[in-house]
């Protein structure tokens, strides 16, 4: 009995033992198992590698809670989108690198555009969790503004930061009615509203104008992160820029 290579590859992906990109590149050789049993040698290696890998033994096979297919799709898509751009990455590559079968994709996302919008919505929630954490120990509205831009400077000047996915989405999909552009626009407007609220609470002059300037400074830091990476990245100075703007908007004493 000969077990077909393609059938086995698809089977391993479906049951979650091996990612599609690994299963699909197995070497097309056969090896005999007992009387009349032949199986692809490359796929045997996949089974041995993935089934007996310590992470598998202590995770999936030991009953550890595993990531849902939806989250695996969004995690993989997000990493690829950030590195290569929204338009350069196709569904097939996302499926291959996530190890999720195509038949599992469509119950979660009807299209690539829907997946992008869902990824951006999740990123928006994570951004606010990060921002709130950065400001939680500050004891005043002005201190919160300073703490936020301190955190932005640290993040944007790290080599791991690849910039702002919302900027990337707005550039990749310039049509205002596109779902990704709409999510990006809502995110940027929410950032400005938060900055306006903090500036107003801090009793700084022209809170709307200050918030607009701080938002531009914030966006500039994300662009610098993507452009310069570790090469003399000016994003480290974003906190100093925010401080200067805050000082310039203090109430004028009579």
Quick description:
By secondary structure, this protein is mostly helical.
Would you mind describing this structure in some detail?
This protein is mainly α and 254 residues long. Helices cover 64% and strands 2% of the residues. A two-stranded antiparallel sheet has the order 1-2. A hairpin with a 5-residue loop joins strand 1 and strand 2. Helix 8 packs parallel to helix 11. The longest helix has 24 residues. The chain is elongated. The protein starts with a helix and ends in a 6-residue tail after the last helix.
Would you identify the regions where 5 or more consecutive residues have pLDDT less than 50?
1-5, 7-65
Strand order of the largest sheet: 1-2
Order of H and E elements: HHEEHHHHHHHHHHH
Q: What fraction, in percent, of the residue positions are helical?
A: 55-70%
Total count of helical runs of at least 4 residues: 13
Using only C-alpha atoms, the radius of gyration works out to 24 Å
| Largest sheet geometry | 2 strands, antiparallel
User: Cα distance, first to last residue?
Assistant: 94 Å
What's the multimeric state?
single chain
What sort of overall outline do the alpha carbons produce when their principal axes are compared?
elongated
- The chain-level structural class is mainly alpha
Beta-strand portion reads under 5%
Tell me the number of strands: 2
